[in-house]
Amino acid sequence: MTESGIIRDILEGDREKFRLLVEKYQPLVFRTCIGFVHDKDDADDLTQEVFIQAYQSLSRFRGNSAFSTWLYRIAVNASLNSVRRSSKNFIVQRFNSLFGSEKTSDIPFSQADADDPENILIRKEHVVRVQKAIDSLPENQRTAIILSKYDDLSQKEIAAIMNITEGAVESLLQRAKQNLREKLSAGRGKNP
Questions:
Q1: What is the CB neighbour count within 10 angstroms for residue 98?
Q2: What's the distance, Cα to Cα, between the start and end of the chain in Å?
Q3: What dotted CATH number matches 3-186?
Q4: What is the C-alpha separation between 171 and 27, in angstroms, rounded?
Q5: Which of 54, 75, 82, 89 could be bridged to 32 by S-S, CB 3.0 to 4.6 A?
Q6: pLDDT tens digits along 137-160
Q7: pTM of model > 0.90
């Protein structure tokens, strides 16, 4: 069955078919969300919120773009709203991520790290520094870099999601990479 057929059936009352869309797109939405919030539990909650919003708004999907593009727009907007809401808690979140909160367990470590606590601390600090640099980018650059690097989307797909030209996406990505290089090189030797 095609996506448009599934959507038509959902709109005609077969709510159970929405599960098919969730199963297909949940990994993509999750990757987008975690790119913005950097925490598995928060990304899980946000992913659920995105699908609730998508379900409630499904009647407004016109099919002018791919369903995935429409869903990415919802995920990006929900993620940006979440980041804005939580910006007041930024210092507390960073403190917790550095000093033993359970939420840092998402950072992958090798077996060698288990034998060297210093390596674990260095990797945690590096991850936090990169996340902080991404978070400090202007919103449009952050969105473009997350869709490109976390979701591995093409410039054409990013342009459709952000409703801008491919040239604008390329420019945003170049500026984002330059800003990240500057922020990360300026941050060397400093605590995150």
A1: 15
A2: 49
A3: 1.10.1740.10
A4: 27
A5: 75
A6: 999 999 999 999 888 899 999 999
A7: no
